[in-house]
């Protein structure tokens, strides 16, 4: 049996800075515009009937507190042994991850 499992990778680096009043594409305020949230919503709609779960990873952020080295790849859920999120709500995992990590240099 073949199963299609989406793999989501979010760029948490400073390359997401903008030149408008937002200053950064990432925002923990869920009421403000956020291109990543819009993209995750589109992925959710496209895959939720095909696969109930997705793999969620991030890159380009300081994933360990008090460490200045940027991680090339880290588990977006915060649980190294469980990178799985429900496909129908990846935005929740995105915002949780955004609150745990510091954006890194590009």
Tell me the major beta sheet: 4 strands, mixed
Number of helices: 2
Strand content: 15-25%
Tell me the number of strands: 6
Could you name the ranges where pLDDT drops below 50 across 5 or more consecutive residues? Answer: none
Helix share bin:
10-25%
Rg to the nearest angstrom? 14 Å
The chain-level structural class is alpha+beta
Shape: globular
Average per-residue pLDDT, rounded, comes to 82
Notes on the protein architecture:
The protein is α+β, with helices and mostly antiparallel strands and 106 residues long. It is built from 2 helices and 6 strands; from the N terminus they run βαββββαβ. The strands form 2 sheets. Strands 1, 2, 4 and 5 form a 4-stranded mixed beta sheet that branches. Strands 3-6 form a two-stranded antiparallel ribbon. α1 links the parallel β1 and β2 (53-59). The longest helix has 13 residues, at 35-47.
Based on the model shown, name its key terms.
alpha+beta, 106 residues, 4-stranded mixed beta sheet
Brief summary:
The protein is an alpha+beta fold. 23% of the residues lie in helices and 20% in strands.
Topology:
Elements: E1 7-11, H1 35-47, E2 53-59, E3 61-62, E4 74-75, E5 84-86, H2 90-100, E6 102-103
Parallel strand pairs: 1-2
Antiparallel strand pairs: 2-4, 2-5, 3-6
